[in-house]
Amino acid sequence: MESPTGKEGQIFNIYVFMKPFNFHEKHIVPGYNSLRIRTHHVVHMVDILKQFLGYYIGLIPSVYYKVYGQRDKDGFISHTLWNCGLIISITLVLSSKEFIERVLYISWRQVLNRAVHRLYFSGINYYTLNILDKKLDNPDQRMTQDINRLCDTLGNITTKVIIAPFLIGYYTYRTYVGTGWVGPTTIYAYFFLGTIANKIVMSPVVPWVFKQEKMEGDFRFKHMQIRVNAEAIAFHVSGEVESCKTNNALDLLIKTQQRLFNQKVLHNLVKYLIDYFGSIISYLVIAVPIFSGIFSEDEDIASIVSAYSFVCMYLVFSLTSLVNLSSQVVTLAGVTHRVAQLIEVLNHLQIDWDLNTMQASSSFSNLTKKHKHSAMSSPNTEHSLTENLLLDREDNDSRVIGSDENKLDVVFILNNVTVKAPGSAKILVKDLNLEIHKGENILIMGSSSSGKSSLLRVLRGLWPVEKGSVAHDFPPGPKTVMFLPQKSFLTNGSLLEQIIYPLRLDPNNAISCSECEYLLTRLESLHMGSLVTRCGGLQADPGWNWADELSPGEQQRVAFLRLLYHRPQFAFLDEVTSAVSLDVEDLLYSSAMDLGITLISVGHRETLTKYHQFLFTLDGHSGWNIEPIANKR
């Protein structure tokens, strides 16, 4: 039988298995006085109470045999009333135990998911994981389904494993009292053999659980891809093609599931064999003292057999229940490894992001101490940008976050930067020297795939540079530097939430009425007044998928309105007006310039030149040139 290879085939080891439980231990188990720990203790106490009641319920038949044999009517009535009380009590206990376990499970899921989210949304980890580093399959599934199954399965296993030693110890003693050393020895030998058999047949199953989870994620992703791109697929009339591709993903999933079930056949045979042989072990054990004459003929054999067979059977049950946990352990091992992989990758990405950010900030501080505010030049200029001086300024050092108003004179310094796409050998930009200053609008132009958007990705820190350094130092948030990507992103929520993005609505810092009026006026000037009516108001959440409801031009106008709302000092725009008319484009750019926003734009339209002072051109062969533009406004 084929088995997965690589790490997936070696995941059933204690190091990998326990790895995720060390992650953010202070959050998952913050202390012995935490609410989650106290809840866990309550679960154990309720479980002990359940076992206590279960013991007396297990003795019910033996007492009935006794009162029947003695024709004891009063004893029958009192025993029945006692039993009714036991049944009502254990019903309440079982319901309470299940409820508390579910509360504990959702608490675990919340803290583990939030801990992973903190890493996932830190820096640009979400971008790197989904776009650049695609070695980890389906991170979304790992954060949703896998963490859910991990916490659910762990909750089911934990209580049973913790209570098992106490149950086994007590019922071992009770079995010894009734049967002597033969009873516990026989039962333990049976359990030991069953455990070995279970381990042998369980090991080949674990890798296939891991692989099935991967195929489930691929199949779900394909359906999500269809949902997101339904209109484009309809325009292409490519339903048949996508049906074929989706069915291929389904077939791979079914094939993997079938192999998993094939591996489980032997595992299930062994598991059920242990279960059902365990049901007669108790009678075989109790037969020894009965046939050896330990009990006299005057004693009520039926009552004795019922009582001690229950004790032996419960010892067998306590031991075999640990064996039966193997199927849940298989599931837990698979999803635990997937979550551990995710956490490990995110931790590495976070370390890399922190180092890159620190290096960029440090480079900026060093460069601004040595170099002066300079004019821009092409690669043929004798001296690099950072070596030119403006002698007519008394304060030669660039001011970086120096004033009370947090004003920037220079935002980026690129020194001998070479750019190429991650994983590609083609150089897009070579030996680029550039400073981006306040008030100097730059238009970036060039042929398709020449590296225009790639340059913005480097500035944003999404891509590493092949050579050279990109230095920057500015506070986070859209009030200083803002990037508008080529493809507008519209999140869920109200129209107001789309406009103030990437900020979120805060009840403690609500949007003022004057700001709402300003936004409504802006929407009207952009010919989008009807949109407010369509979505039920500025602050109403229509529950839309905004990308499906708005045209590309409307999406670009909403995205640009974010710029006008936040009024950053610098804005980096990647073809953000390609889907709007020239008059709307003029309105958008003129409004941004009136607000004093420095614009660095990527575009193809010649009409954009009148809003910029410098033209930065990429020739498509790693060359570049920058030159002033005559003011045409």
Task: Give a summary of the structure in a few sentences.
This protein has 633 residues and is α/β, with parallel strands linked by helices. The protein is built from 20 helices and 9 strands. The chain is elongated, with a radius of gyration of 35 Å.
CATH class of the largest domain, named Mainly Alpha
Cα end-to-end separation? 73 Å
List the quaternary state of the chains.
single chain
Specify the number of helices: 20
Q: How many runs of DSSP E, i.e. beta strands?
A: 9
Structural class: alpha/beta
Name the CATH homologous superfamily of the largest domain.
ABC transporter type 1, transmembrane domain
Shape: elongated
CATH architecture name of the largest domain = Up-down Bundle
What is the radius of gyration? 35 Å
Explain what this protein looks like in three dimensions.
It is a single chain. With 633 residues, the protein is of the alpha/beta class. It is built from 20 helices and nine strands. It has helices at 14-18, 25-28, 35-58, 60-69, 73-120, 125-132, 139-179, 182-202, 206-228, 230-236, 239-291, 301-324, 326-370, 452-460, 495-500, 513-525, 529-534, 546-549, 552-566, 582-594, and strands at 410-420, 427-437, 442-446, 467-472, 481-484, 570-574, 598-602, 614-618, 624-628. Strand 1 (410-420) and strand 2 form a beta hairpin. Helix 3 packs parallel to helix 7 (139-179), helix 7 (139-179) runs antiparallel to helix 12 and helix 7 (139-179) packs antiparallel against helix 13 (326-370). The chain is elongated, with a radius of gyration of 35 Å. Mean pLDDT is 78; it is low at 5-21, 23-27 and 369-405. Residues 141-331 form the ABC transmembrane type-1 domain.
